[in-house]
Design brief:
The complex is a heterodimer. By secondary structure, chain A is mostly beta strands. Chain A contains no helices and eleven strands. Chain B is built from no helices and ten strands. The model of chain B has no long low-confidence stretch (mean pLDDT 97). Classes of the chains: A mainly beta, B mainly beta. Chains A and B meet through strand 10 of A and strand 5 of B.
């Protein structure tokens, strides 16, 4: 069955870089796009960026200068790196599969990231 | 960027009532709107795609309608498991924005 699992550090210090991994199973990264979506604690959802099935990337312009998304298809993994973290980057980070365009049909369980000194 | 405005922010209902949740887009987006349910401490779940298309495994009491700028998620006879937050999301143009959500709570 389709699964996405996020992993990464729970605590990041201000100004440091966040590195997250999304490991997928049940589908191919060359057949589906994977997106990253985050949710500040107690708030709504924000689309961060995507790794398209063909290897192209796209980023939310609000985060573009700090964000990088890459993948390793042999390991079924998509990676997120975001630098210069601040306290308002605290929240839950999800990876999600896109079907039918940018419609998110499967989601990971999310990883909680706290930015604090 | 396309802004999605959801209303009301909170809706208090009793089980058995039928409800309608609204999502308004800042510009016309055809039917490129999708609805998600998020229960407390869980990931979002896709309920409806492209304004009115059903999703396998989602109860039939959930339905969607609308086109252009005005969209509605309807829940026919709310059940206790439906109390959660509902988000709309547009896939018309990047960035693929979400609404702020409507919280459906027990009255």
């Amino acid at each position: 069955q389709v699964q996405l699992t996020e992993s990464g550090p729970g605590l990041v210090h201000p100004s440091e870089t966040l590195s997250l991994t999304c490991t997928v199973s049940g589908f191919s990264l060359t057949g589906y796009s994977v997106y990253w979506v985050r949710q500040p604690s107690g708030k709504g959802l924000e689309w961060m960026g995507r790794m398209r099935y063909n290897g192209d990337t796209s980023y939310n312009s609000a985060l573009k200068s700090r964000l990088s998304i890459s993948r390793d298809t042999s390991k079924n993994q998509v990676f997120l790196k975001m630098n210069s973290l601040q306290t308002d980057d605290t929240g839950t980070y999800y990876c999600t599969r896109a079907a039918w365009g940018a419609t998110f049909d499967y989601w990971g369980q999310g990883v909680m990231v706290t930015v604090s000194s | 960027n396309i802004v999605l405005t959801q209303s009301p922010a909170t809706l208090s209902v009793t089980p058995g009532e039928s409800v309608s949740l609204s999502c308004r887009a800042s510009q016309s987006i055809s039917t490129s709107i999708h609805w998600y349910q998020q229960k407390s401490n869980e990931s979002p779940r896709l309920l409806i795609k492209y304004a009115s298309q059903s999703i396998s495994g989602i109860p039939s009491r959930f339905s969607g309608s609308g086109s252009g700028t005005d969209f509605t998620l309807s829940i026919n006879r709310v059940e206790s498991e439906d109390f959660s937050i509902y988000y709309c999301q547009q896939s018309y143009s990047s960035p693929y924005t979400f609404g702020a959500g409507t919280k459906l709570e027990l009255k």
